[in-house]
Specification:
This protein is an all-alpha fold. It contains five helices and no strands.
């Protein structure tokens, strides 16, 4: 078998977090125009301080009763969060 090369991922910068958080918020804000139930999730995402937490909140959204009502946004949210 061929050797597997493992490369360390760079530590995400604050700019990376800001861009990912903005992308997730953009999706949730669009959703909130159709369903006001997205507002508490927007508030949670605004408080996220690192990419791991952002990813965890996106997964919590997708698994939540509210998130399950909107499966059409799950993939976009995960891509935006870098999950």
């Amino acid at each position: 078998p061929l050797p597997i090369e493992v490369t360390a991922r760079p530590i995400p910068s604050r700019k990376g977090l800001a861009e990912a958080r903005f992308a997730v918020l953009d999706i949730l804000l669009d959703l909130s125009e159709k369903d006001f139930g997205a507002r508490p999730w927007i508030e949670k995402i605004e408080q996220v301080a690192d990419l791991a937490r952002l990813s965890a909140e996106v997964e919590a959204f997708c698994a939540s009763p509210f998130g399950r009502k909107h499966p059409n946004v799950h993939d976009a949210l995960r891509r935006a969060a870098g999950s």
